[in-house]
């Protein structure tokens, strides 16, 4: 059964990668893979009298450890991501419905591809540190739809946005979920130290591929014309309303990490609180308008535009990775790395980063946290080089494949980017940047 689940995962992964030749939506492949992997896990328990408890709560709970794992634990983590994603997408779509992004797009005058690429990527890098890589990717894709008409050209921008968002999230405790995990669990408790040590390698991971692409990505972009149709209304709001909703939406997104820090509640609750407030405020703002004017600006209408297929794709792929984790494959892989590289922290973390492009970086980082205790001194001490480099590698390594990070998966769903196209056009740039940033960190602290 342990081998069978790996075979199913690989076949499912291949089906996602070959979405266009197979003519099967990646969400369907991901759902089948995730559910079949859990079915295999159930059959692997055989006649165990505690099978039900093991499935629901995890084997460690049944064995007397009060650490809760199993399906409920994974489902909570996955639901956290899905509700967070849905909330962020709704807020962004609501700002878009009010033409709020015109506040930024009207100020970006250049149509030169190279200049625009640098502007978008630098904005993404710093937005990601303040918001998080997933939310920032959703916001920047909405911006790019206003700035770039041609789909394949926009895909190049979106591919670089994924690299920039992951690099920007790595050096901030609220920018990437893995850095947040290391911060919350006290491996990286010193926030200024995280920023000072990781911002330069993270910036190198972006600037190197950005510089390389600048030599070949030439010409000008054509902006889409504003049109009035069933889905898009030309200037539906006043300039004051557009600015107000843009600021309100951005403030709502920035509020989320602060809410989490203060209350220690899951991030999706802060996102839903922000959505509720923005929903109520916009309802009051438009209460005096006619139904035909108010309807396209309401959250009810905006919710119909949410890409549910992307949400289901997330569910399937994360459930599949969770099943691998329950089997112990990810911990086994982490232990094998420790043995093969004889505890060399740089080699171990570089491979973990590349593995995070194939499976989710969260369980990989969780496995590393479980393998190594926080030492009083040395590389494994709080704020030690092992934990810092792990944050960098797990945060940026996922850019190597489009389904290797939450930002990439969101981009793939929203822009319908082909797995093979990303592999051909963007992956090599991401890998070069990843190794350049890793080398920078090594030279700084080895």
Compact overview of the structure:
The protein has 446 residues and is mainly alpha-helical. The protein contains 24 helices and no strands. Helix 1 (2-17) packs antiparallel against helix 3 (26-44) and helix 11 (177-184) runs parallel beside helix 20.
Description:
- This protein folds into two domains: 2-70, no CATH class; 71-445, no CATH class.
- Helix content is 72%, strand content 0%.
- The protein has helices at 2-17, 19-22, 26-44, 51-57, 59-62, 70-97, 102-105, 113-130, 133-147, 151-170, 177-184, 191-214, 239-263, 267-285, 291-294, 299-303, 308-327, 329-340, 345-355, 361-371, 385-396, 406-415, 419-425, 427-445.
Oligomeric description of these chains: single chain
Low-confidence residue ranges = 228-233
The class by helix and strand makeup works out as: mainly alpha
**Could you give the order of the helices and strands?**
HHHHHHHHHHHHHHHHHHHHHHHH
What is the percentage of strand-forming residues?
A: under 5%
Q: How far is the N terminus from the C terminus?
A: 42 Å
Shape: globular
Cα gyration radius (Å)? 22 Å
Total count of domains = 2
Helix content range: over 70%
Tally of individual helices? 24
Q: Roughly what is the average pLDDT, rounded to an integer?
A: 84
What is the count of β-strands?
0
Q: Sheet with the most strands? A: none
């Amino acid at each position: 059964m342990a081998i069978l689940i790996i075979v199913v995962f690989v076949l499912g992964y291949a089906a996602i990668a070959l979405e266009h030749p197979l003519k099967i939506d990646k969400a369907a492949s991901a759902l089948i893979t995730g559910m079949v992997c859990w079915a295999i896990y159930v059959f692997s328990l055989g006649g165990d009298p505690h099978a039900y408890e093991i499935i629901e709560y995890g084997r460690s709970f049944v064995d007397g450890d009060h650490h809760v794992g199993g399906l409920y634990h994974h489902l909570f983590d996955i639901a956290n991501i899905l509700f967070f994603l849905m909330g962020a997408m709704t807020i962004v779509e609501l700002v878009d419905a009010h033409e709020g992004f015109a506040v930024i797009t009207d100020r970006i005058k250049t149509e030169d591809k190279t200049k625009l690429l640098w502007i978008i990527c630098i904005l993404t890098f710093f937005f990601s540190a303040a918001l998080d890589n997933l939310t920032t990717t959703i916001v920047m894709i909405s911006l790019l739809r206003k700035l770039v008409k041609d789909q394949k050209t926009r895909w190049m921008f979106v591919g670089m946005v994924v690299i920039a968002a992951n690099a920007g999230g790595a050096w901030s405790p609220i920018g990437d979920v893995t850095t947040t995990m290391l911060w919350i669990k006290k491996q990286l408790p010193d926030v200024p130290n995280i920023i000072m040590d990781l911002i330069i390698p993270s910036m190198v991971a972006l600037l190197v591929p950005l510089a390389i692409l600048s030599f070949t990505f030439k010409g000008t972009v054509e902006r889409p014309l504003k049109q009035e149709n069933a889905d898009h209304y030309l200037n539906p709001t006043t300039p004051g309303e557009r600015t107000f909703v843009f600021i309100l939406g951005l403030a709502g997104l920035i509020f989320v990490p602060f809410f989490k820090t203060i209350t220690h509640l899951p991030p999706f609750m802060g996102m839903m609180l922000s959505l509720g407030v923005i929903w109520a405020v916009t309802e009051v703002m438009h209460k005096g308008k006619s139904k035909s004017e108010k309807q396209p600006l309401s959250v009810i209408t905006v919710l119909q535009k949410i890409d549910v297929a992307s949400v289901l794709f997330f569910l399937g792929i994360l459930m599949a990775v969770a099943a691998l984790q329950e089997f112990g494959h990810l911990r086994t892989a982490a232990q094998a790395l420790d043995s093969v590289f004889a505890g060399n922290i740089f080699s171990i973390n570089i491979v973990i980063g590349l593995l995070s492009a194939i499976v989710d970086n969260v369980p990989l980082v969780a496995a590393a946290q479980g393998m190594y205790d926080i030492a009083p001194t040395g590389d494994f001490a709080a704020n030690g080089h092992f934990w810092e480099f792990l944050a960098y590698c797990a945060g940026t390594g996922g850019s190597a494949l489009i389904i290797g990070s939450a930002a990439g998966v969101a981009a793939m769903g929203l822009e319908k980017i082909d797995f093979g196209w990303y592999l051909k056009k963007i992956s090599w740039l991401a890998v070069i940047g990843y190794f350049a940033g890793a080398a920078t960190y090594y030279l700084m602290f080895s």
